[in-house]
Amino acid sequence: MLNIGYFHSRVELNQWKSKSSDHDLPYFCPVKKFFPIAYVLLIVLGMIWGSSFILIKRGLVAFSPVQVGALRLFIAGIVLLPVFLSWYGKANKRNFGWFMLSGLLGNGLPAILFAVAQTHLSSSVTGALNSLTPMFALLVGVLVYKIPFDRSKLLGVLVGLAGALALILLGHHSRPAGDLGYSMFVIIAALLYGINVNLIKEKFSESKPMVIAAFPIVFMAIPSFLFLVFSNFFTEALFEPQALQSLGAISLLAVFGTALSLVAFNHLIQLTNAVFASLTTYIIPIVALMWGIWDGEVLTIYQIGGMGLILLGVLLVRKKGKA
Question: What predicted TM-score, i.e. pTM, was given to this entire model?
Answer without folding.
Answer: 0.81
